[in-house]
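Morning run. Coffee first, then this:
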Amino acid sequence: MSSVAENSTGRPNRRFIKRPDDKALKQEIEGLKNEIKKLDLTNNEINAQINKVVTDPKVIERRKELQGQLKELVGKQSTIKNERGAILDQIKGVEAQLKRKISEIQTKTSKHAFKNVQEIDSRVNYLDKLVDAGDLKLADERRYVKEMSSLRKLRKDFGSIEKQQELIDQDKAKIAELKKKLNAVQNKEVQQQFEKIQKELDQINDDNKSVVNKRNELFGKRNEIKKNKDAKYDQIRKLRAEFDAEFEKFKTLMTEERKKREEESKQQQLEEKKQKRKEQAEKQLSEASVPAFTTEINSIHTLLAYFDPSYVKPQPKKSATATNSNVNSSGNGRKIEMPEDVVVLKKEQESFFEGSKSKKASKQKKSKAKNFTVEPDVIVALGDLSIPLPTQADDVSSTIDTLKETLKALEDKQEEQTKVNIEKAKAKIAKLEAEEDQAEAEAAEAETTEA
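And here it is:
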């Protein structure tokens, strides 16, 4: 993320977002509402005129009466229409049955030359007379006898056709009766009454045409006023919608600006945190670079000078570890450089008493032979080093030897321990850097998920 530009005061530049001014909107809406009130007054006047322009009550009453009669006639016409429709449906049903029955008879009779039983009987009688006359040849006689036998058999089959024919005759009679009934259910009289009433209504409407025209004119004006009011209401809604859109845009910009400021604040806090971490790392590394056991060694030199006034503190050796200004960081391969102006401070152990080589020391030396005493600070220092406290003057030499042995052991181990301290500091710094990098990555992932 790029750094935020700063102004002369050192603070980030902030975008000014103007809030939409609803004062002009309220004034314009108020003007439209006043116009609507004027239109309402005009509308009330027109309604009053409409109430005055009315038809004669007697005419209105007669028109209502005629309209009621028309309604009754329409109901009668509907009833008649339904009755005729029901009769026609019956006629269609019977005619369908009749056609089916006639078709069945035609199917049976089409195979023979005879149409009915009378024709068969006539043929049988004719052949019988020929046979009885005795003038036929034997072959013709046999043929005629055989034919009469077949005709008599056929006549039995035609018995069912006669019954079917009776049913056909019944259907024809029923159709004739239904048609007669249909002719009786006529709509002519009702239609004549309907036309008569409608004619009277038309006459009333013609006589009342001027009143109707005047009322229609007033209705037209009232409708026009309604259109104007609707247009002004639409204009008010449009103004409010436009203002709402501008206000929503304003809120969106404010939200974006707030998010931007939050991002800038997070970035600033992150940079400050990184800077603080860098300073802490430098401080930890600087403290770790101080030669190990410096406090203990200085304390031993002071104790040696206390117990042996002739002891002279040697010049300190230059440690390669402590003077190394470029220390490589372990773990991430980065290099942490010590600033050039850093001065490693070594806290010198204060003398347990002043003037160890003065006359006071020689007097003290003489007094030890009489009454051996040790300063409280010396007792504490020996305790910190875990060195036994001399209880008499004869034990001082042993204490000095122990101090020197301890000094040598610490000096021998000093460089190695210093390196260990530096490596520990590096590992701690690397761990903190890794944890902070992970926290930053998780925060960035959370922001992406929210977006």
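The chain has a mean pLDDT of 77. Good start to the day.
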